[in-house]
């Protein structure tokens, strides 16, 4: 065999013999009413199947923090989901745990006026380019930073206003006070240039719109510490969804490190032996 060809083959085998380990994230979900509490298990059972770009997905282990239960150990979770007000949630225990949430809170926060959880359970349903994809991307993105990520959906609508975000005891109060507005919006537009960000994987503006009221609230586009990823078509001064500033293009891989599998290590060793054999033969030539 040609020496250079052998070297190329062995090096290619060594470099391509690694696979990413399957990743599992630990999800804490703030519970709502009995009907809503069917959603966490349903979505977790198939979240790992969502991978429009064929670049990897995450499996979920989910715990529901239900009414009447003691506050959990927030630091043991990768992400904390706070549902939309349509879940029937009672925000009292959320507000009481503000300091503990703040202490465990990590590098990524996802805030949206879209109530993708409600629309997953209702209309238009579990559509990938719609409520399902939007929700899974949000959770995977928030879980892929350091510490406990946050995903918080619309906490009210026009006529009701905030149920917890703008409460003085909210862990988000200082960040959001004066930056919230409540309205009904059907057109949600992904910010130009962000279409290929992992947090928007498989999504289009059309897919985020026309859900039968796609958004119920928005955030000032100048909210400090946050970056806009989609906007309200009829309220351009408000973002529908914000993420932590500087993290909008961050990955959704759960922070997984690519490691060699046992068979890959064997292939790598074979590659090294092949390179050594080629060098020996060259020296003898």
UniProtKB/TrEMBL annotation:
Stored InterPro entries: Ice-binding_C
Residues passing through the membrane, by range: none
Entry keyword set: Signal
Signal peptide positions (record): 1-22
Signal as UniProt keyword: yes
Residue stretches making up the Ice-binding protein C-terminal domain: 258-280
The protein's name in its UniProt record: PEP-CTERM sorting domain-containing protein
Organism: Rheinheimera maricola
């Amino acid at each position: 065999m040609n020496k250079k060809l052998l070297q190329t083959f062995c090096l290619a085998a060594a470099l391509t013999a690694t696979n990413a380990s399957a990743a599992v994230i630990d999800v804490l979900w703030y519970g709502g009413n009995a009907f809503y509490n069917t959603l966490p298990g349903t979505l977790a059972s198939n979240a790992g199947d969502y991978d429009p770009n064929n670049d990897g997905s995450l499996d979920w282990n989910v715990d529901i923090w239900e009414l009447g239960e003691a506050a959990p150990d927030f630091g043991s979770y990768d992400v904390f989901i706070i549902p939309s007000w349509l879940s029937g949630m009672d925000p009292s225990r959320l507000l009481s745990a503000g300091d503990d949430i703040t202490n465990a809170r990590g590098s990524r926060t996802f805030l949206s006026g879209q109530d993708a959880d409600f629309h997953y359970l209702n209309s238009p349903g579990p559509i990938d380019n719609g409520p399902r994809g939007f929700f899974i991307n949000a959770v995977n993105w928030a879980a892929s930073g350091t510490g406990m990520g946050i995903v918080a959906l619309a906490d009210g609508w026009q006529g009701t206003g905030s149920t917890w975000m703008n409460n003085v005891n909210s862990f988000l109060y200082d960040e959001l006070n004066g930056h919230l507005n409540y309205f009904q919006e059907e057109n949600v537009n992904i910010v130009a240039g962000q279409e290929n960000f992992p947090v928007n994987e498989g999504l289009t503006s059309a897919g985020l719109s026309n859900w039968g009221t796609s958004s119920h609230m928005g955030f000032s586009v100048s909210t400090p510490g946050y970056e806009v990823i989609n906007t309200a078509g009829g309220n351009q001064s408000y973002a529908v969804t914000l993420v932590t500033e500087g993290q909008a293009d961050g990955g959704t891989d759960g922070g997984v490190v690519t490691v060699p599998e046992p068979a890959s290590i064997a292939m790598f060793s074979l590659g090294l032996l092949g390179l050594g054999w080629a060098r020996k033969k060259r020296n003898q030539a």
